[in-house]
Amino acid sequence: MRRTAVRAALPDFDGDELLKCIKEVVRLNQSWVPSKKEASLYIRPSLIGTH
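RESULT FIELD:
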């Protein structure tokens, strides 16, 4: 994702910080996370340039 951001002239970001943010969002929305063993949670981060 960071390489794509550089190629698209979007701002760089800290990948470790992004991972922490994703984990926190999942934790805060735990009631929406599937609990069955055969289920999964699909996470698709996106980066949008607004400048």
